[in-house]
C-alpha cells in the first residue's frame, strides 16, 4: 500500500461507515436529519476522539473538507435509496466494513506514533479511531455499544493497530508496516465472522 | 443586535437552558444533585464540546464565572420552585427556548469563523453549540436525543448558523450577520412548532 | 500525606476503580474484551475528561505507562477471578472505593488549580476527575449514571475538591490541603453510606 493511496481509501472508508451508521439510524426509525447526524458521527467520530485525545485540534476531519463531504454523502445515499442500501447482502458488506475498520485502525495508530505516543497507547488510539464512531452511534441510539456485546471487532482493530505501533517504533518501512497492520486486522475480523468467533463472557 | 449585547443575552440563554434541563431531570425523578448536574450540562455542554473541538481550551464557560453561575442558578430555581417551573405554559417556553437556541447557534458559528473554520464546519459547530447540551442531557438520562427524534430543532440551529458562517465569510457587517442568523433560526423553529413540521422518517 | 506518596496511591485507586468497573461489566454479561474496555474507561475516564477540558493533552494517563497498566491490570483480575472479586464484601469495598474517590477528587482539583482555574471550576473538575469514569461506564452500559440516581457520592467528591481548591488558592501548605480534602471527601462519603443519606428528589 503506497502511503499516497491512503487519503482516497480513507475517504472511501468514511463514506462506507456513514452508509452503515445511516442505515442503522434509519432502521431505528429516525427522520432524515437524525439519519444524517448518525451517519456523520459514525463516520468521523472515531477520528475526532483520537485527535482530541492527541491534542491535535481542530480534528483533521475538520481541516479537509473532503471528509465531512464523504460522511454526509454516505448519509444522503441512505436517505435517498434506503431500500437499496438495506438490500446489500452481508457477504458484500462485511468485507467492506472490515476493510474500512482496518484502514481507520492502521491510519489512526500511525498518526498517534507520529505524535510521539508509546506503542501501547498508539495501538489503543488506533482501535479508538476504528471503533469510536460506532460507539458514539450506539450510545446516541440508546444501545450498549456493539463492540462491547459481540464478535471480535475491536480486538481485530487493536491487533492491526498494534502491528503498526510496534512496526513504526522499530523503524520498519512505513508502507510495509501499514500494509501488514491492515492485513492483520482484516484477516482477524473476517476469520471471526466466518468462524463465528466470540470471546467468552466473564460472568457465568 | 449590537455585539455588546451578546454576553447578557448569552447568559440569559444559559440560565434558560439550565432551567429546562433541570426541569427534565426533575421530571425523570432525579435528586437535587442530579437536577443541578443535568441543568449544568444542558446549559454549557454545547459550548464546551464546540470549544474542545476548536482546541480553544479551557472552554470559554470556564474562564467567565458568570456562565457556571447562570447555569447553576437555573438549576437551583428548578430545585426550589419546581412546581412553578413546571407550570410555565409552552406558549411562553417555546419562544424563549427558540431564542436561546438561535443565540447559541449564532454565537457558536461566529466563534468558529473567528477560529478560521470553513463555512461548512462553522455552521456545524454553531449547530453543536445550540444542541449539544441537550444531546448530553438526553444521553445521561438514557434517552435517544430529542434532536434525533422530533421537530425541526437542530435544522433551525443549522440554518441560523449557516447564515452567520456564510455572511461573515463574505465580509458582511458582523452585527447584521448575527441578527440575520438569529432571525432565521428563530423563525424556522417557531414555524416548525406552529405548523407541526417534522422531517419524514427514512425507513418505511 | 506526603505529595510523593500521591503517585503510588493514585495508581492503587486506578486499579481499584478498574476492578469495580470490570465487575459491573461482567455482571452485565459482557465478554472478556468488553470487561477490559469498561474497566479501563471507569479507571481513567475521569482524568481524561479533566485533562481534555484543561487543554492538557495528551491526557496524563497517556504519558505515564503505569496508569494504563494499572487500569488493564484491574480489568484482568476481574476476567481471571471474577468469582473472588464478586465475593469481596461491601464492608471492604466501600471504604476502599471512598478512598479512591477522595484521592481522585483531591488530585484532580489540585491539577486544575495548578492550571490556573478559579476555585469554583477547580472544585468542579476535581469532582469530574473522581466521578467521570463511572459516568462513562454507566452511559456505555445504557444506564442512567449512578451519581445521578443515588447516595451522596458526587457531593462528597465535590466537598473534598472544594477544600483543595480553596485551600490552595489561599496559599495553605499543599500536603496539608490535600490531606484535609481527602479526609473531608472520605468522611462525607462514609457517613452517607453508614447513615443511608440520600438527597431528596425534586419532583414529588
From TrEMBL, chains A, B, C:
Listed transmembrane segments: 65-86, 92-113, 152-168, 175-197
Domain of life (superkingdom): Bacteria
Keyword hit for Magnesium: no
Subcellular location(s) of the protein: Cell membrane
Pfam families assigned to the protein according to its UniProt record, in alphabetical order: Gly_transporter
InterPro entries from the UniProt entry: Gly_transporter
Keywords assigned by UniProt, alphabetized: Cell membrane, Membrane, Transmembrane, Transmembrane helix
Similarity remark: Belongs to the UPF0126 family.
The protein's name: Uncharacterized membrane protein YeiH
Amino acid at each position: 500500500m503506497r502511503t499516497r493511496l491512503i487519503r482516497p481509501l480513507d475517504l472511501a472508508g468514511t463514506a462506507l461507515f456513514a452508509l452503515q451508521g445511516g442505515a442503522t439510524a434509519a432502521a431505528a426509525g429516525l427522520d432524515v436529519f437524525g439519519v444524517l447526524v448518525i451517519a456523520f458521527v459514525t463516520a468521523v467520530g472515531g477520528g475526532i476522539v483520537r485527535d482530541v485525545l492527541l491534542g491535535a485540534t481542530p480534528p483533521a476531519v475538520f481541516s479537509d473538507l473532503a471528509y465531512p463531504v464523504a460522511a454526509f454523502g454516505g448519509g444522503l445515499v441512505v436517505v435517498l435509496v434506503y431500500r437499496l442500501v438495506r438490500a446489500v447482502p452481508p457477504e458484500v458488506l462485511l468485507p467492506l466494513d472490515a476493510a474500512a475498520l482496518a484502514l481507520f485502525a492502521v491510519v489512526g495508530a500511525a498518526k498517534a506514533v507520529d505524535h510521539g505516543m508509546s506503542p501501547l497507547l498508539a495501538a489503543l488510539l488506533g482501535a479508538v479511531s476504528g471503533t469510536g464512531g460506532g460507539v458514539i452511534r450506539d450510545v446516541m441510539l440508546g444501545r450498549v455499544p456493539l463492540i462491547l456485546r459481540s464478535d471480535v471487532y475491536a480486538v481485530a482493530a487493536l491487533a492491526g493497530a498494534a502491528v503498526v505501533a510496534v512496526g513504526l517504533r522499530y523503524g520498519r518501512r512505513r508502507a510495509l508496516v501499514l500494509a501488514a497492520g491492515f492485513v492483520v486486522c482484516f484477516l482477524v475480523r473476517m476469520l471471526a465472522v466466518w468462524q463465528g468467533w466470540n470471546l467468552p463472557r466473564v460472568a457465568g
